[in-house]
Design a protein that fits this description.
CATH class: Alpha Beta
Strand content: 5-15%
Largest sheet: 7 strands, mixed
Strand order of the largest sheet: 3-2-1-4-5-9-8
Number of strands: 9
Order of helices and strands: EHEHHEEHEEHHEEEH
CATH topology: Rossmann fold
CATH architecture: 3-Layer(aba) Sandwich
Distance between the termini: 9 Å
Structural class: alpha/beta
Number of domains: 1
């Protein structure tokens, strides 16, 4: 079982002068779910090297058992500091694809031709693809072979408008994940803000928020096994 995790390389939170990136829990929880299941995990990002961590996700309020495990794991830290460049990843070499969220992906991965082509390659090969929190937003330009949006008619979830309002970034992000998925024709659904909520539609797995990251990863492992 070989899984590639794709992280953002984008660190600027719009025009706020603040930093963003990937959300720590959304990386750490799936990483250990995959490793504990015996998977080989490769980390990739558009720029390669150390992806930017959303500093807010490093605050004490947002730590979990698995983020603490990451901070005590030099091998995992080393792997994260040395992500391979996304354009070096070939779908044929992997069994599944996972995208952690954080706000960063809305700027780079959502618009990356490399990312779009990679997701399309996994999908067309019948391999599972999974996304959590803001990461379902990277599907906005991903198409089926017939040219329709990949999410059209598919059951998906992702970071809600209410959650974005809670973090006061509605007017900062380039687009709202919930609105974008609905506009693309997805059958968007959501649970209560900040509660775990995961949807599986065939080999497309999406999770609503940071609390959903471990469950998305477990669903992916189940699908692979």
């Amino acid at each position: 079982m070989k899984i590639v995790m794709v992280l953002t390389s984008h660190s600027e939170l719009g025009n706020t002068g603040k930093k963003t990136g990937f959300w720590l829990e959304e990386f750490a929880a799936p990483y250990y779910v995959f490793k504990d299941a015996g998977a080989e995990v490769v980390l990739a990002s558009p720029a390669g090297g150390q992806p930017p961590l959303d500093p807010k996700s490093d605050l004490p309020d947002f730590q979990t058992e698995l983020t603490h495990r990451f901070k005590a794991d030099p091998a995992a830290q080393q792997a994260l500091a040395n992500t391979v460049k996304l354009d070096s990843i070939r779908a044929a070499d992997f069994d599944a694809l996972f995208y952690p969220g954080g706000h960063g992906p809305l700027w780079d991965l959502a618009e990356s031709g490399t990312s779009i082509a990679l997701i399309e390659a996994f999908e067309r090969a019948g391999k599972p693809v999974s996304f959590v929190c803001h990461a379902p937003g990277v599907l906005r330009h991903v198409k089926t072979p017939s040219g329709d949006p990949l999410v059209k008619g598919r059951k998906v979830t992702g970071f809600t408008n209410g959650e974005e309002a809670d973090v006061e970034l509605t007017n900062v992000v380039p687009f709202l994940v919930e609105d974008e998925l609905i506009a693309l024709g997805a059958k968007y659904a959501k649970g209560p803000n900040w509660a775990p909520f995961v949807i599986e539609d065939g080999k497309l797995i999406t999770g609503q928020n940071p609390a959903s990251s471990e469950a998305v990863a477990k669903a992916l492992v189940t699908l692979l096994s």
